[in-house]
Amino acid sequence: MKASCSGCTKTFSRQADLTQHLLKSKNPVCIEVRNRLAESTRRPYRRDQPHPRFPSSAPGPSRLGPNNSLPDDPAVEDFAGDFFGQPEDYSEHDFPVLPPQENIEDVPPAGLHTDNNRGRVTESDSEESSDDEAEVTGCDIEVPVSRHDQPMHPSIGGPSHGAQADNLPLPPPSPPPDVPRDGISAADLDALRQAPQCVQPFGGRAGEQISDPTIKVSAYNAYGSKVTGSEDNPYAPFASQMDWEVAQWEKERGSGSTAFTDLLKIKGLVEALGLSYKNSRELNAIIDEKIPHRRPAFTHHNVTIGDERLDLFARDILECIRALYGDPEHARYLCFTPERHYADSDRTIRLYHDLHTGRWWWETQKAVEADTPGATIIPVILSSDKTQITLFRNKSAYPVYLTIGNLPKSIRRKPGRRGQILLAYLPTNRLEHYSNKASRRRSLANIFHACMGHLLKPLVKAGISGVPMMSGDGVWRRCHPILAVYVGDYPEQCLVTGAYTGDCPVCECPHDELETYPNAYDYRDPDAVLDALQQLGSPSFERACRDANIKPIQHPFWEPLPYLNIFRSITPDILHQLHQGVFKHLVSWLKTVCGAEEIDARVSRLPPNHGIRIFWKGISKLSRMSRFLLGIIVDMPLPGGRAVTNRLLRATRGLLDFLYLAQYPIHSDESLSALEDALSDFHAHRDVFITLNARDAFNIPKLHFLLHYVDFVKLFGTTDNYNTEATERLHIDFAKEAYRATNHKDEYPQMTKWLERREKMAHHANYVLWRLQQAQTGPSPLSAHHDQRWTAPDLAADLQIKMTRNPTRKAITLAEITSPFHYGATFFIPALARFVVQWTYPTLAPRQVEEKARYVHIPFATLPVYHRIKFWNEDIYGKETIDSIHVHPRKLSDNDDLLIPARFDTALVRIDHGLGEPEPGLSGQTHLTLFDTQVAQVRIVFSLPDAAVARLFPALPQNRLPPRHLAYIEWFTPFRDSPEPHSGLYSVKRLVREGGRVASIVPVAFIQRSVHLIPKWGGRVPVEWTSGNVLDECPAFYLNTFKDIHSYFNVK
After folding, report:
1. Is the pLDDT confidence value at 264 over 80?
2. C-alpha to C-alpha distance for 234 and 944, rounded to whole angstroms
3. pLDDT at residue 350, as a whole number
4. Do residues 146 and 913 make contact, with C-beta atoms less than 8 angstroms apart?
5. pLDDT tops 60 at residue 531
6. pLDDT confidence of 726, banded at 50, 70, 90?
């Protein structure tokens, strides 16, 4: 590719040679070309084309030549690589004459004219709560133009009121191509955001009802018939509403039985409240004897091994399944048959989410229907994990939990929906009197399988022949409970399957070949394993087990279970395999490669953001930091130069992409291909850790298991169906709190009784509510919470902006607002003036807006401000704050000591208008892409006083007045069409004009979500940078798309 110098007309064979010529030449004409070229690429371009909503009647003059190019500028061709590397191998520092590409797009938002002056602002971490009583924002300043019509959103601010930049046009940027992002095209990603276009039911007699399908009766009717006195008293067996509510408070929120008894001893209290019990013992007697069991009671069993007796506390597994299946609160959500979901009407793109959309249920249904038509399968999901219940004394519990796949995954995962049940406490004895460690381990494994075999024995017959079960709406079906999934960490997986520690528990890959990619080994053959185990008692038993690569277990619990392949029931585990497994290894490798001190220095200087904790002393002693891991190594200087750094980035990014893709709540065939591609990318570049002496090999079982993730998603749905995070959460309710309620002596009988009483009270509370509703609305509702509809979590769901009813500070002076030592909104007054003019006269051209803004009088001296913006979706997540933006200055004590550092978060702000006005109360996220938004730092959120609105907008009708909540923001540069190739991160810079920051006032409704920016370190971290000032000191940033799963799904 030839290039010529427009100064001396010398021709060069490569663009790189021309660049070097311009750098080194002392010829005056060449120097002039070099200076003109540099100036043209740095110039803050702007176009003044008519705005669709605010048409410009007098666009400013243009300097465009006849071919839409600046006159006299040399034609410069794109750099296409040279002998030393491709374009991606170079950075901006390699081309001092040519600034990075984003400088070409460093343009202010169009529509409102902008001139800025750089202000000094301090950024730091802070967290400030505010009133949850909220209001929603209103309309927006204007509907911004499309990215393909105008390059930016309206901009305001600057040291002068001139309009110099109006003469500097910019050709419209090309539309962002529909290219794969992490292997997923935009169209395929949209398929994950929408409801299935086609649902194929299993059909036939599957899920057939064996009772009259027209008669539906709430299961609360049968429960109420067992409560004495409930015909006339909805609170029975308690005497009154007060009697019931005091008992409910004691069992759900009370401080303990002794304290409650002491409370009731107060003279006259029992009589005044009309209570039917005088102490905790009498209350417990009422619960134990007069409230029926909805969930089965625990029974005590002795397990004998040698001379030692062990305790097993367990429930009947079929009754536990009946309790979950027949709960009236679950009746609306139960799924009875498998389905195939597709993203297209042609059924070419399969979708996987809940268990019933996976292939396991479909194939098992086919097998059961072939034997006994009309079956309703109940997929049984078990999980077990030993946990410490004391900080000292090393006392542990070994709970086993049960749930059913007929319930949606989000109900199963939320303890408050009571979709899980404690099945048993397994023995925790360590058999320390066994001197031989191998014998001890084998005995412990046999105890586990013997106990689990006892628990699951009823499933053998029920799984084959089926048992009649009634759902919470009174409908009977023939149900086949079949073990589908066993959830556990790696030691538990090896214990369940009998695999040797260090091997893969599901496939035949030997330990010394676990690093092989792609996997060349089949899944374990259950028939071959069972054949080996059948030789128990013969001299060849142990040899047969060794040949089958399995431990010599005596009768594993899964041996007689029907329709079960235990090696396909061991599922992925995000918590232990990725967060606490693979990423723990990855962090240790990066510490070796990059140095713990440099990593700590970078982490301690990250800017704060929602969900981003600032570790002031670094994280070299921590292992879970996936949220910002890529950003802190993005330009780490390493031996071997840029090529080694790029390989390190690709390997790290591959694992990060895998982690976040694996957590998607819905997958398609295309997204699963992207998951495989991410893992492939890691393996293609993993040798960089060997090159840098961080690792010798990769024979790690947890890393190897990532090869099986795609298969298991296709079998059982997405990983949130079977992640151990749910098990860890259940430990709090079913083990730790239960233990705290005991006297710590012979605790298990007390723990089980405490749990039974809690379950009785929880179910009876729903029954009481249902009875009261029956009196008000009649017999139609089948459940107590019939007015509450569950909605499946959706990462793409719109988030509602919630603002507190009252401002955080009611009167902030304009001097504080503009002061760099407070809010730092340096050009707030001219920005507001321009906002007023453009809102009042939307058809004015930018120059006319600028001229009229000179005469706007600001009729107030103080403003109410808000220090936090919350993002909710109450229909899906309740009142949980999914995202938030903090905007507040530092807070000092009376002695000028720093109490709370300043914090002004960065956010994505909408710039594309093609969707029209956002709905009231929404941030307008629907169908927005990354290129419809732009990064900005929020400096202040405020409201205009009513009196000021009347004076500033006297001619506007009520429906044309500006919204209540406005924000002053400072812009960053637009996104380029594609991220950087190795890190996959988009880079942005402060958007400046004439040395000042480009700023705007926009409605809060235009703010989409918070975003986290990671500095471009440029080598070793400057010592003067801190977490509080890095947003001001650092010249360039990366958009951190790994901040959380919501950002990864919607922003990346």
Report:
1. yes
2. 53
3. 94
4. yes
5. yes
6. confident
CA nearest 676: which of 707, 701, 638? 707
d(CA 63, CA 70): 7
The more confidently predicted of residues 735 and 392 is: 735
What's the rounded Cα separation, in Å, for the pair 423 and 554?
23
Are 757 and 742 in contact by the 8 Å Cβ rule? The answer is: no
Q: Yes or no: say if 60 and 845 are a contact pair by the CB < 8 Å rule.
A: yes
C-alpha Rg value of the chain to the nearest Å: 33
The predicted pLDDT at position 121 comes to: 30
Q: What is the pLDDT of residue 781?
A: 65
Cα separation, 937 vs 1029, whole angstroms:
13
Indicate whether 58 pLDDT > 80: no
Residue type, 866: Y
Is residue 479 within 8 Å of residue 468, measured between CB atoms?
Answer: yes
Distances (CA, A) of 56 to 110, 370, 960: 11, 73, 20
Where do we find the tokens 């080194």?
24
Return the closest-CA partner of residue 712 out of 662, 748, 787: 662
The sign of the torsion formed by the CA atoms of 235, 237, 239, 243 equals negative
User: Is pLDDT at 201 greater than 90 in this prediction?
Assistant: yes
Reduced to 3 states (helix: H, G, I; strand: E, B; else coil), residue 18 is helix
Cβ atoms of 157 and 1002 within 8 Å: the answer is no
CA distance 636 to 1019: 6
Contact assessment for residue 21 and residue 30, using Cβ atoms and an 8 Å cutoff: yes
Q: What is the mean pLDDT of residues 579-607?
A: 91
Token pair, residue 210, equals 């064996």
Residue pair 96/202 in contact (Cβ under 8 Å)? The answer is no
Q: The sheet that has 1036-1040: what strands, in order across it?
A: 987-989, 1036-1040, 1012-1015
Residue 1040 has φ and ψ, to the nearest 5°, of -85, 95
User: What does the alpha-carbon distance between residue 715 and residue 708 come to, in Å, rounded to a whole number?
Assistant: 11
- Categorise residue 1031: left if φ over 0, alpha if ψ from -120 to 50, beta otherwise: alpha
CA distance 112 to 839: 10
d(CA 650, CA 642): 12
At 750-793, the pLDDT tens digits run: 999 999 999 999 999 999 999 888 877 666 666 666 555 545 55
Measured CA to CA, the distance from residue 185 to residue 941 in angstroms comes to: 36
SS3 737: helix
Q: Which amino acid is at 593?
A: V
Number of helices (H), then strands (E), in the chain: 35, 34
Cα–Cα distance, 441 to 431 (Å, whole number): 9
Q: Above pLDDT 90, what percent of the chain?
A: 57
Distance CA 728, CA 488 (A): 10
Q: Which residue has the higher pLDDT, 61 or 480?
A: 480
User: What's the confidence (pLDDT) of residue 624?
Assistant: 55
Q: Is the CB of residue 651 less than 8 Å from the CB of residue 689?
A: yes
pLDDT of residue 315: 97
Of 547, 541, 305, 543, nearest to 439 (Cα)?
A: 305
968-1005 pLDDT tens trace = 999 999 999 889 999 999 999 999 988 899 999 999 99
In the predicted model, what is the mean pLDDT of the chain?
82
Q: What CA–CA distance (Å, rounded) separates 582 from 702?
A: 6
